[in-house]
Amino acid sequence: MNGKIVKAIVLAAGQGRRMESKVPKQYLQLGGHEVLYYSLRAFEESQVDEIILVTGEDEIPWCREHIVRKYGFSKVKQIIPGGEERYDSVYAGLLAAAPCDYVLIHDGARPFVTGAIIERVLSGAAEYGSCTAGMPVKDTIKVVDEAGMAEDTPDRKSLWAIQTPQGFSYPVIFEAHERFREGSYRVPVTDDTMLAEMFLRKRTKLMEGSYKNIKVTTPEDMELAEVFLGEERA
């Protein structure tokens, strides 16, 4: 990146209630390794300079010993506690990432991120300041009301399913989070490009991710992840 400092924030503080497991989804075994292992490996092998792992406070010693040291992830320089909400965890990661030029934010429960995806998103962040991985939706989408009645059918050609990583110029995403936290209201924040769009009116560039770049959230996702992993190893 021509002397620019790039850091990655990998989020692994979720409880994974929809997984119906006592073990948080990011630590479930997938092909003999933890789900989180695959995300960290992808960033370890990428051009990022440093990885900041955000996890539960009680899980920090375990992650340090059984993930970072076990697999020799030398780019994981910090393991920090997350917050109550996802945006709190991201903000903690942004504070820990300073100073840097670009930052990538990734869900640790997306084990099939690749070096190519990381490179595309970082390239988009460098050019546009705000970028995210995503893919065009395959299904027809309906907008529904509170009673579950269809109100609109958007043109599928204009719809993308958003993934991570999401990449930003560090000043852009940090200011967006700062402005969000200064307000007295809270809106559902499902990704970080929302904040850049809402508070800075910063348009986001979409780069191709992969239909395999799923977020492991439910037992069905784990079954699909096993299939994808088996295809990679075949």
Walk me through this protein's architecture:
With 234 residues, the protein is an alpha/beta fold. It has helices at 35-44, 60-71, 86-97, 115-128, 170-182, 193-200, 219-233, and strands spanning 6-12, 29-30, 33-34, 50-55, 76-81, 102-107, 130-136, 143-144, 150-152, 160-169, 205-208. The chain has a seven-stranded mixed beta sheet with strand order 5-4-1-6-10-7-11, with helices on both faces. A two-stranded antiparallel sheet has the order 2-3. It has a two-stranded antiparallel ribbon with strand order 8-9. A hairpin with a 5-residue loop joins strand 8 (143-144) and strand 9. Helix 3 (86-97) crosses helix 5 and helix 5 (170-182) packs across helix 6 (193-200).
